[in-house]
Design a protein that fits this description.
Blueprint (H helix, E strand, L loop, with lengths): L27 E5 L2 E5 L3 H8 L3 H11 L12 H16 L3 E2 L7 E5 L10 H4 L1 E5 L8 E2 L6 E3 L6 E5 L1 E3 L19 E5 L6 H13 L4 E5 L26 E4 L3 H9 L3 H11 L2 E2 L4 E6 L8 E9 L10 E7 L19 H20 L7 E7 L7 H9 L7 E7 L9 E5 L5 H14 L2 E3 L13 H5 L4 E5 L18 H20 L12
Parallel strand pairs: 9-10, 10-11, 11-12, 16-17, 16-18, 18-21, 19-20
Antiparallel strand pairs: 1-2, 3-15, 4-15, 5-6, 5-14, 7-12, 8-14, 9-13, 15-17, 19-21
This protein binds zinc ion.
Length: 517
């Protein structure tokens, strides 16, 4: 949730649970006046809902709230990696891309961030992967294990590599030059002088090479080296990216290549440059840090079954960005992992998508699953979606937002909505009754403008904000997974899933006028 100076810090309300409720049964009795009313859900809906598990919620949260994501500040590699993770999940579930022109992403400019640059450690990246489809990679530490050469141009590429024993080493005339289309891995025992390095770059470039990784003793940064060099010291840019790998970095490279350095040297001495096979190298050089002005929503679609209603949508959304290392007073410090805010909401989003897709459960209306970017910077992702996603707001039948759903009482869900959205209100009540969860609407009115439901409400779309409540770790480095109650995440996810199901099949609502309210 976006931070507001005007917010009143809500103290967690201690709610007394109604006694005698158990979690197992899916039939609930709700007393309306004197007559008990039974709520039932169909078997396939129940099954789909039960595919939401604490285990899977935990896995998603722990990936997103890992230190490796560096707090998922919009525009940094931690946020970009998170977006890619979400996109891969959507794709693997068989959902359809929901952006314009069949894209999974909606890009937008984050207002007020023109010229803003991210930290160097996030804009400069060197990773080794075993193969294209490997989900895990070995990430080298910026300035401890690698540094771009001071005169390297900026780069963002993924490539195989080839071992080059020395600059000028000729390739076998018969076969294709192994350097072509690859990164040259070049061992250096001592620091190369500028003229030799430029010569090597020219040669590798002429042979179709994409860049050079200098490896070993001669690749270490000089004492008191300033990186990037101050403008006065900046020399002429090299023709291709050059990155130095040192410290424990080389060992990581050789290990993943499957052979020690001496073995590569020995064979290359006889056979010339060698295609290494692995690792696949993921390289990014941004000498001024990354441009932070670009935001990116991830959008997926799931088509409904009713020929007349499938052109209407229920939007299910959660923001994936967080604040990086920015404290509430604006200072830079420790990583804020944002486990509750909002890895929990994204876990819910992915689990709801999975519930529909695995069970092949098709509601009448279509669904849009969206992971918003730049929420913490002022609800920019949701604003961009409502303003220019290609979806006409008048086709949006309802919106469900999940933000910070993993703390406080596990059986109580805070719910924000407009009281005038009566059908939505009764659907939420019905869903909570089936799950034997308590709804708490107190104090939610002032929060309606502080998360991604806000632009949807402004466009007149019935929207609900599912929220787990504030806590002392809100926007602090201590918002970690250890403090998240995964059982609560699972409960709220199931509530949101049922709400989306009833809303997507709702035939009680009057056709909605697209009106700003
Ligand atoms: Zn927040």
């Amino acid at each position: 949730m976006v931070f507001s100076d005007f917010s009143i810090r809500l103290t967690a309300l201690f709610l007394v649970l109604a006694c005698g409720l158990t979690t197992g049964s899916l039939q609930a009795q709700r007393v309306l006046g004197e007559r008990p009313v039974k709520e039932r859900i169909e078997r396939d809906v129940k099954h789909a809902m039960q595919s939401v598990t604490t285990r899977e919620c935990y896995d998603h949260i722990s990936w997103l709230a890992d230190d490796l994501r560096e707090g998922r500040l919009s525009g940094t590699s931690g946020a970009l990696d998170s977006a890619d993770y979400i996109q891969k999940e959507f794709k693997n579930l068989g959902l359809l891309p929901g952006g314009v022109d069949g894209d999974w992403y909606q890009s937008f400019i984050i207002p007020g961030r023109t010229g803003a640059r991210g930290p160097l450690s996030s804009g400069n990246r060197l990773r080794f992967k075993v193969s294209e489809n490997a989900t895990r990679s070995v990430q080298l530490s910026f300035s401890e294990e690698f540094l771009p050469h001071p005169f390297s141009p900026d780069a963002d590429l993924e490539a195989e590599c080839s071992f080059l024993l020395f600059s000028g080493q000729p390739a076998d005339q018969v076969t294709r030059d192994p350097l072509a289309g690859r990164l040259a891995v070049m061992p250096v025992d001592s620091v190369m002088n500028d003229a030799d390095l430029r010569e090597a770059c020219k040669e590798v470039q002429a042979r179709g090479g994409l860049g050079i990784l200098l490896i070993g003793e001669g690749a270490s940064p000089l004492d008191n080296e300033e990186w990037p060099p101050s403008t006065g010291q900046a020399g002429e840019s090299l023709p291709i990216p050059v990155v130095r790998v040192f410290g424990s970095g080389p060992l990581k490279l050789w290990k993943i290549s499957g052979r020690p350095e001496r073995s590569w040297k020995f064979q290359s001495d006889a056979d010339g440059p060698l295609l290494m096979g692995r690792p696949l190298v993921d390289l990014e050089v941004r000498r001024q840090g990354r441009d932070l002005s670009q935001g990116r929503n991830v959008i997926a679609k799931f088509l409904g079954s009713d020929p007349s209603l499938r052109s209407e949508y229920i939007v299910i959304g959660a923001h994936y960005d967080h604040v990086g290392r920015t404290g509430m007073d604006g200072s830079q410090g420790e990583i804020h992992n944002g486990a509750d805010d909002n890895a929990t909401g994204v876990a819910a989003l992915l689990e709801i998508a999975e519930a529909y897709s695995l069970a092949r459960l098709r509601p009448k209306r279509s669904l849009i699953f969206i992971a918003f970017d730049a929420e913490e910077l002022g609800l920019h992702g949701s604003g961009a979606f409502v303003a220019s996603s290609g979806f006409d707001p008048s086709t949006l039948h309802g919106m469900i937002n999940l933000d910070m759903i993993g703390r406080n009482d596990v059986k109580t869900v805070k719910v924000g909505r407009r009281t005038s959205d009566q059908v939505l209100g009764s659907i939420i009540e019905k869903s909570a009754s089936i799950l034997k969860l308590n709804i708490d609407e107190e104090g939610m009115e002032p929060l309606l403008g502080r998360s991604d439901q806000a632009p949807f409400l402004r466009a007149g779309i019935p929207s609900v904000f599912f929220f787990g409540g504030f806590h002392d770790d809100y926007h602090k480095p201590t918002d970690d997974i250890e403090l998240v109650k995964v059982e609560k995440v699972c409960n709220v996810t199931r509530l949101a899933f049922l709400t989306s199901w009833f809303l997507a099949n709702d035939t009680e609502s009057q056709p909605r006028e697209a009106s700003g309210q």
